[in-house]
Input
Amino acid sequence: MLRICLRGANATALTELTQPSSMMEKEVNTPKAKSEKKVKEEAGTAKESSPVPALPAKSIREASAEATHVISAISEVQSVPAPCDTQAVVEECKECHDHKDKPVSAAVHPDEGALRERPVEELATKLAQQDQEEQDAVISISACLEDSLASSAKATLQAIGAQEAALQAITQHTKKLKEAMEAEALSDEKSVQWKDLETALADRTSAVNDAETTTLKANETLDSLRSVIDKFKGLKVSAVRPLILAAEENLHNMMVDLNKVVTKVQSAESEAKIVSQYTELVNEAKQQFQREVSSLTPEIQANWKGLTGKLSADDLNALIAHAHRRIDQLNRELAEQRVREQIHIDAALEQQKLEDQKVLEKAVKTNLQHIKEETRLEQEKKLAELREVMEAEMRTQLRRQAAAHTDHVRDVLKVQEQELKAEADQVLSSKMLELETRYRQLSQEQLDNFTLDMNSAYARLKGIEEAIDSHVVAEEEARKVHQLWLSVEALSYTLKTTNADAPTVPLEDAAQAVRESCQDNDFALALVSALPEESLQHGVYSEASLRARFNSLRYLVRRVALIDESHNSLYQYFLSYLQAALMFEAKQEAPPSLLAWEDLDTFKLLSYASYSLEHGDLELAAKLVNQLRGEARRLAQDWLTEVRLTLETRQIVSLLSAYANAVGLGTTQAQ
Amino acid sequence: MADQHGRKWDRCVADTAIKTATGLGVGLVFSLLFFKRRTWPLFFGSGLGLGMGYANCQHDFRSPYLVHGRIVKEQ
Output
């Protein structure tokens, strides 16, 4: 039964399950045949046939139950994991999944990001990430494998130990049974023996159960390990291949060991079965014999071996006769058996041949499988080695290539660098040139602007200076003019500084001042030079004084009215005095605009002059007085000159004043 | 010139008076000395004096109108 489980665990087709059951049947048949032989020789087959079909039926049922158990426990499908297996796998290698899933999922996003962002750096990071993932995967896988390997090894060892124990127990039991069967010991020893046998049987059953359970567990773990290995194989991560190979190898070894031990146990069990069957037969025979004996001698008890001393002669004779009869029967059976021996043997041989064939086939198959596995493992190992070697070589080649590439790249980079440098230099120089020209241009512009500004400023400055100068000049002029004006004013003021009859102060100072204040003014100079010396030296008389003088002069002139060049004797004087006394003219008479002949009379003239004097017209008065003739004229000459002087001075001063005013008006700025 | 006129008159009168007085005096003297105290030298002298004074006075008054000629020798 265990063989079925193990064989099933080897992951062969279901047919093998049926085959083992048939094998089992056949195996059962062969011991059945053996037992049949033995039983037939002893007694009828009816009694034995009933337990015998029960055995195969029971065995078949058991086998089927085991098979179902096995099928339910183990998954046949390799690639698609069954839920229980996946659970086991998941439980065992959840880490791996997590490790794998996370990096994978993490790798996706950066991948997407890599497409959008710069691929180079992302690529490097992705590669690093992938390496990291691989490493992580490797680590996780190795961890998983180690875990599963460890667990399976433990389970397998346990199973092997249990199996060994079971083997031991079975052999022990068998030995004991044999001893119990074959030894002809005393009854109490026999009972002890039987007790030992029972304990041994109990031990054996317990050991066998333990072995079964542990083997099942081991098989489970081995299957899970296998599935894990297959899954990891499916992942195609190269670095874990040796690990996988090692794990597979370990798995194979463990399975082989387990199988060996299981076969050992099975053989022991078969032996035990044989022995047990033998014991059963013996017991049956014994019982039969006992029944016969009891049927013959009902008084005798069952344990006849120990009753040798208690039997009577009849019983003994009966017993002997029975024994002889039995012997005869047995001899007959033996002869019959000898006759049929060959046939039986041939049939048995045939059966055995077939069974052997089947067993051989099975063994061959298993061995073939083992060898196949081994060869496959070796091949894979070799493949892995080769791959490694190839990888190493490829790596060296790649390294070489990379070195060559780097050299080439370096050269190319150098060349490129130079090119770029040249280009950059050119660009730089052109830019520099451009910038320089621009700079020069700008500076020139700036300079020009500056010069322009400077020029303009200079021109403005010059203009300003000129303006200022002209201003200064104008101011100077104005100042001069003001000075002139002031001096002229002073001069005109001096004209007013007359007391009643005294003349003014001499105008020399004022005239000098005027002369100084108009050094470059020809007009003023001319005017000033036109000032009469008299006025400069002696000053001028005021109008009032002249008026007063005229009044006094008038009387005198009246008295000498008749005196002229021809009439200038004293008698004439007397006559003129007389005339003056007797002439009554108007004191003042308005002079006409046109002087007629009769207006040239002295007295009239005098009245005219008086009138004009009174009315402030000195000039007219002077003009009128100028019309006097003779002595009158001579007498009025002084006064006339004085008046002329005054008039002259006044005229000049007024001219100067007007000129100064005009110039001052022109130059004075309204502030 | 007006005051000169006055001064002229003063001079004239003074001069005439003096001359008359002087003439009178001379006449007196002559009269006393030479003309046995006749009165006619007094009058003559005074008259002489007056006349001289009058002439001087007149000459003084005419003086501005007098033309002083010179005989220029012909070549």
User: Anything to note?
Assistant: Chain B touches chain A through eleven residues (CB under 8 Å). Chain B has a mean pLDDT of 84. The two ends of chain B are 42 Å apart (CA to CA). Helices of chain B lie at 2-33, 40-62.
